[in-house]
Design brief:
With 216 residues, the protein is of the alpha/beta class. It contains 8 helices and 8 strands. It has an 8-stranded parallel beta sheet. The chain binds D-xylitol-5-phosphate and zinc ion.
C-alpha cells in the first residue's frame, strides 16, 4: 500500500473553511485529519463536534478524528454521529483503554491509539493487535506549526517491529511538523499515514503540497 496523506484542518482558514475542504476534496489527499482539543488534556482548545458534523456535510474523504481530550469515552457516540471514520484516543486519557477501543469499534469506527513523544512504543504491546491505527505524535500535542522531533524515526522502527511481533495490521500515523524534508525518511521507516497541517495550509499552493507529500 502506498502511504496516505491527511491534511489537518487545524491549520485551515476557518473564515473560509468550505473552500479549504473543497481544496482537499479535489486534491490527492486521502483523509481529513480533525483535531479535537479540550484545554484540559492539552493546553489549547480547537473546535467541537457540531463543527465536525458540518465539515462532514461537504467532506468527500474520510474524517480521521484525533481526540486530545480527557474522558474520550464520553464522546464516542457523538463522534460517530458527527461522521468520524477513524477515532484515535490518547493512551493517557483512557483508564480502560481496551474497553474504549472495543466501544469505538462497536460504534462503527476504526479505533486508534495515540502516544506522546516521551512514551516508549512498548507501552502499546498489549493493545496493538486490537487497533487499526497507531498515531505517534512527532511534536507535543496541542498546537500546529511546531518543530518535528527527530527521535520519531527510531520510534517508527521500534513500532514497526512491535506490530510485526504482535501480528498487528495497524497503520502507523505520524502527526506534527511533517513536511517534505522528513516525509521520505518517515515513509522509509514504515509510516503509513502522514498528517500535515501548517505545511499544507500555509503553503502557496496547498493542493500541490499535498501531491508533493504523496510522492515519496
Ligand atoms: C497537534 C495536532 C496536529 C496538528 C499538526 O497537536 O495533533 O494534527 O494539526 O500540525 P502541523 O502539521 O502544523 O505540525
Ligand atoms: Zn492531530
Amino acid at each position: 500500500m502506498s502511504h496516505l496523506v491527511a491534511p489537518s484542518l487545524l491549520a485551515a482558514n476557518f473564515l473560509k473553511l468550505a473552500d479549504d475542504i473543497e481544496m482537499v476534496n479535489n486534491s490527492d489527499a486521502d483523509w481529513f485529519h480533525v483535531d479535537v482539543m479540550d484545554g484540559h488534556f492539552v493546553p489549547n482548545i480547537s473546535f467541537g463536534f457540531s463543527i465536525i458534523s458540518q465539515i462532514n456535510t461537504i467532506a468527500k474523504k474520510p474524517l480521521d478524528v484525533h481526540l486530545m481530550i480527557s474522558n474520550p469515552d464520553q464522546f464516542i457516540d457523538v463522534c460517530k454521529d458527527a461522521g468520524a471514520y477513524g477515532l484515535t484516543v490518547h493512551y493517557e486519557t483512557s483508564t480502560h483503554l481496551h474497553r474504549t477501543i472495543d466501544q469505538i469499534r462497536k460504534a462503527g469506527m476504526k479505533p486508534g491509539v495515540v502516544i506522546n513523544p516521551h512514551n516508549p512504543v512498548n507501552l502499546l504491546s498489549e493493545i496493538v493487535a486490537d487497533v487499526d491505527l497507531v498515531l505517534l505524535m512527532s511534536v507535543n500535542p496541542g498546537f500546529g506549526g511546531q518543530k518535528f522531533i527527530g527521535n520519531t524515526y527510531d520510534r517508527i522502527s521500534r513500532l514497526k517491529d512491535l506490530l510485526l511481533a504482535k501480528n498487528s495490521h495497524a497503520l502507523i500515523e505520524i502527526d506534527g511538523g511533517v513536511d517534505t524534508s522528513n516525509a521520505r525518511e518517515l515513509i522509509k521507516r514504515g509510516a503509513d499515514v502522514l498528517v500535515a497541517g501548517s505545511f499544507v495550509f500555509k503553503s502557496i499552493n496547498p493542493a500541490q503540497t499535498i501531491s508533493d507529500l504523496k510522492k515519496y
